[in-house]
Amino acid sequence: MTRADLAVVVAVYRRESKKFDSLSSWGFWGGVVTGLLLVGLRPALGLINDWNPVFFLGGVTIGLATVGAAFLYRRRALAELRLRCASCDTPLLGRGKWEDVASRADLIVTTGVCPSCGNEFVATEAR
User: Fold this and answer.
1) Contact at 8 Å (CB) between 77 and 16?
2) CA–CA distance, 70 with 45 (Å, rounded to integer)
3) Which of 119, 116, 97, 113 is closest to 6 using CA atoms?
4) Are 119 and 86 in contact (CB under 8 A)?
5) N or C: which end of the chain has fewer CB within 10 A?
6) Sign of CA dihedral 85, 87, 89, 95
7) How many CA atoms lie within 13 A of 57 on its CB side?
8) Considering the entire predicted model, what is its pTM?
9) Are 97 and 57 in contact (CB under 8 A)?
């Protein structure tokens, strides 16, 4: 793997992570707004006040389910990359906040060495 290949992988990781962050935030707030909208429409539907918590918590549950799905999809996408150091077996794109993971990967792209063990992570460029 060359530095250019590694840079492409990091760019894809950044783009996908931003997509999952957007899905999490829009999904959660969409669920909350849906719950509030249902609470507001309850009188028009002719339902009693006892339905308010059900509608609101149902919307929040939908929002939290979207956040959970985005988390699982992000982990699955990260597991598919499987970039590990040949010496210490440390993953290039490990766990943590995606901004920290991407900056650590950019450091590896820049220096070409593993931050854990100091061995060469990428192959030398062909001339």
Assistant:
1) yes
2) 33
3) 113
4) yes
5) C
6) negative
7) 5
8) 0.65
9) no
- Measure Cα distances from 111 to 23, 94, 107 in Å: 33, 18, 6
Residue 78 lies in a domain: yes
Mean pLDDT, rounded, of the chain: 81
- What is the pLDDT at residue 1? 67
> What are the tokens at 24?
């999490």
> Which stretches of 46-120 are DSSP H helices?
51-81, 98-111
> Does 91 or 62 have the greater pLDDT score?
62
Instruction: Quote the CA–CA distance of 43 and 109 in Å, as a whole number.
Output: 59
Distance CA 123, CA 127 (A): 12
114, burial (CB in 10 Å: exposed 0-12, middle 13-18, buried 19+): buried
Has residue 23 been placed in a domain?
A: yes
Q: What does the pLDDT average to over 46-67?
A: 89
Examine residue 119 and state whether it is found in any structural domain, yes or no.
no
